[in-house]
Design a protein that fits this description.
- Helix content is about 45%, strand content about 15%.
- It has 18 helices and 14 strands.
- A 4-stranded mixed β-sheet has the order 2-1-13-14. Strands 9-4-11-10 form a 4-stranded antiparallel β-sheet. The protein has a 4-stranded antiparallel β-sheet with strand order 5-8-7-6, sandwiched between helices.
- It starts with 15 loop residues before the first helix and ends with a strand.
């Protein structure tokens, strides 16, 4: 049993597979069972498909890993029910409300959410209710197993000293940065002009005087077009797409071109190339209404006024982020930039070149002057940067990195406790495995105690 698997929360059944009614390519069936808790083949492969659509790096044999996590979670749920661990309906309802609020925020409105999902909010909550209750039960059981596990400084030191010196991590200079970002708005006349351009191109295609694909090559400001990508494959569950863009695409008939729409990227017209169930192939022309230096200067003045209040102490930086920042990536994390692993510490190579120039001469605790830049989508923006901390490059050591080392040490101790718990409890469960997964190396401890169905 892989130690790292034991602390991961299994999300099969609470993923977007419930949310989107995906196509079923193969017949569904029960592939595993722990007590009266079943695991469906569709749960496993829908979760893999979700991860692939979202660009996740999948390990070898992901289906085996997912079955293992499912077995772990079902066993924890059974034990939690046996031990009568408290999970109230109020807790489940609160989590359901949070989940739905997150989806509404992601898709822009309740109406768009229901349209994309093909279900009402009430139906979505009912779909999620049982999986979320089971997730909360498994979390409660996991906490109970490890709740008394602590770690002492001596144990941290012993853990650290067992790490070979040539295996100690080397940390580049790391920074904690926060930002407030505003996007200068193009004036209405410019936006109307761009909208009319798009409408004219739509008419040209419809009257046969132009081909949409050629117009995409010639006029679209989507950076992907420069790389030769003239069309996209969409899925209703994809989270990377602007909600307005996604819902508009799925309203079209094959060959039809949409009216001009406005997304967070700019103005578009979309053509539906083909559609099969929850997947659609589209082309689009993106135009970003240009902003003038005057509009950029207005945003600089606005942020400069905000900076004065922060420096004077009459407004906190977090409050300013909540009230004024327009960047979705950092607005809901208090403005913090995050590294690729989700940490609040970033390295220089993870920053865009404009940000590197901004922080070049800043000291810890400084707030930059507002500066304009072009974001990764090609839009003009203005930002105010706060440098919270900066570390020097160094090899991992207990003085500078005690919290990181301590966390790894306590995680290892908890994993060992969970592993021992499962070794004791697995023989007590009625386990069934389908022959398709019985040979998975990661679940050999389960399969050795299981009934294998042919």
């Amino acid at each position: 049993m892989k130690l790292k698997s034991l602390l991961l929360v299994f999300t099969v059944g609470v993923s977007t597979s419930l949310f989107a009614q995906p196509k079923k390519v193969i017949a569904d069936k029960i592939v595993a069972q722990v007590g009266d808790k079943i695991i469906l083949r569709s749960d496993i492969y829908n979760s893999i498909a979700d991860a692939q659509r979202q660009g996740a790096q999948l390990p070898p044999n992901p289906e085996c890993i997912l079955v293992e996590r499912a077995l772990i979670e079902k066993a924890l749920v059974l034990q939690a029910e046996k031990d009568s661990l408290p999970v109230s309906e109020e807790d489940v309802e609160a989590e359901l409300d949070n989940r739905i609020r997150g989806f509404i925020m992601q898709y822009g409105s309740k109406e768009v959410l229901e349209e994309v999902a093909g279900k009402s909010v009430y139906q979505l909550k009912e779909d999620f209710r049982e999986p979320i209750k089971e997730q909360k039960l498994s979390e409660a059981m996991r906490r109970k197993i490890v709740e008394n596990i602590k770690i002492t400084p001596n144990e941290v030191r012993d853990y650290f000293e067992k790490i070979p010196k040539d295996s100690l991590a080397y940390y580049e200079s790391e920074l904690e940065l926060s930002e407030i970002v505003v996007y200068p708005k193009a004036n209405r006349e410019v936006e109307s002009y761009v909208s009319k351009q798009l409408s004219d191109w739509k008419k040209q295609v419809e009257d046969g005087s132009a081909k949409f694909e050629q117009l995409v090559k010639q006029y679209s400001e989507d950076p992907a077009v420069k790389e030769g990508n003239l069309q996209y494959t969409l899925n209703r569950t994809d989270k990377i797409w602007d909600p307005t863009f996604l819902s508009t695409a799925f309203k079209l008939k094959e060959g039809q071109i949409s009216q001009v729409i406005k997304s967070k990227f700019g103005l578009h017209i979309i053509q539906l190339v083909s559609r099969a169930g929850d997947e659609a192939i589209v082309r689009h022309i993106l135009k970003i209404p240009p902003v003038t230096q005057e509009e950029i200067n207005e945003s600089i003045v606005k942020l400069d006024s905000i900076r004065s209040k922060i420096v004077a102490g009459t407004m906190g930086f977090g409050e300013a982020v909540n009230r004024y920042s327009e960047d979705e990536g950092s607005k809901f994390s208090g403005g913090h930039l995050q590294s690729r692993d989700g940490s609040s510490f970033v390295t220089i190579d993870q920053l865009d070149k404009d940000m590197v120039q901004v922080i070049k001469n800043m000291k810890v605790g400084d707030y930059s002057a507002p500066v304009s830049y072009t974001d990764e989508r090609g839009k003009k923006a203005v930002r105010l940067v706060y440098l919270q901390t900066r570390t020097e490059p160094h090899r991992e050591n207990l003085k500078d990195d005690y919290s990181k080392v301590s966390q790894r040490a306590v995680d290892e101790k908890k994993n060992l406790a969970l592993q021992k718990w499962f070794q004791v409890h697995i023989p007590n469960y009625y386990i069934v495995l389908d022959k398709e997964f019985a040979a998975c190396e990661s679940i050999k401890e389960w399969s050795s105690k299981a009934v294998v169905n042919n």
